[in-house]
Amino acid sequence: MSKAPITPHLLVADPSGDIYDHPDLLMLCRRGNQWGVPRPDELIPLPPESELFLLPKRRPCGLNPETGEIEIVEDSLAVAAFLAPAHTISAHPAYMQEDDAPLLPLFAYGAVGFANEMFYVCAQLVDHDQRQRFRQISREKIAKKARQLQKNYPKNRLVAHILNNCVARYDCPAARNFALGRFEAPLPTSQACNAHCLGCISLQEKDSPIKTTPQCRISFTPTAAEICEVMTIHAGRETKQPIFSFGQGCEGDPLMNADLLASAIEQYRQQGGHGTINCNTNASKPNAIPKLAKAGLSSMRVSMNSAQEKLYTRYYRCQSYAFHDVRESIRLARSENIFVSINLLFFPGLTDTEEELEALANLVGKNGVSMIQWRNLNVDPVWYYHIMTDLSLDEHQTNFSKYNDSMKLSDSIVSTSGMGLSTFMQRLKKLCPWLIYGYFNPYLGDHPKLTAPKVDTWSMPDWNKILTDDIK
Questions:
Q1: Among candidates 255, 253, 245, 179, which has minimal Cα distance to 217?
Q2: Which single residue of 113, 260, 322, 347 has CA 20 to 30 Å from 149?
Q3: DSSP symbol at 136
């Protein structure tokens, strides 16, 4: 017997901040510039360790099932979900902005509703790894471990930064894992960056409409010895599957200090250090890749909001590189037997289009990408969508007030934009069947075994043939 479909009701918050489900209106969600009811395959219970956000100056909108019309709930605030790691949102909440609505902080805003005495979100679990689950671990235990590490290594500035800033101030999951001696250790190194990303979480330009960032950028450059010591500390505690990652939210891009990274990696490897050494990067410096590979780099995760050059450039606002440099870095990494992941900053309604599927499949296939990490783009959804799609906009304009009253109720329709996260993932896997899907950097040992095609050995399959073979 098939289960009855889940039909969540709209969540709203009253002026005092109390959240309740609307008795009459159904949940609506937004993908791009179009509104619709949740797809049956995208509703999951709100994951543990997620949070609910109230959206200031944004009025919730729901669907009246009796009339089929969209209604605005006056004197209420819209509600969104910020999901626990390993989950990717497939829709944003539907709301109307007031004229003086402030720009939303740099978080991901998932559509959320209520049914069967549970909160439901439009999202998908993309990784079963438990590395960023902390429900069973007390804050005091983490703090105690951090204090002990600082006592043991009082002269290492990088240890102090990770524990005093990333753990104590920002609750960084990777930093907490370093304190606990498990999974993946962060290795922030770079004060500088050669991109001015719209959603940079550590540093914004003076004229940016984003006035605050979730964390501050590292204020010093550690030495190779300090970096190597952090790696040695972590490997001595996480003895089974140690992972080390350059490129964290509290820094610029690590390839700005490529020689420093190579020196630290070489020191660690020469002393017999094992584990997966990863670099999270914008991949803007192809010349850095061979020296990092020679030193002992295992994997490289390349962040991008889009495989389409125009959308990529509009978001990253590259200062001393271009999209072709990113592509060349990926190609060189694959040629040097480095495991390459795309850190895909997924945005419902823009990332899951036919155009993006074609561009991403070509980037992945022709350049030997091994994995897609399905991450959420932390940004105000209305602002980002209109900046990405306004063809008249200069690439460096980020004026928020121009888009503050951007969505008129008469312009919205009960339909969907894009093919949806689940369908997009399925179709990409059909085109590139070797791809690994996940959310976290995988443990690969010292030297990964690659199944991704070598550079320029792949060609786009005939989609009609794929469909025909599936039917057979």
A1: 253
A2: 260
A3: T
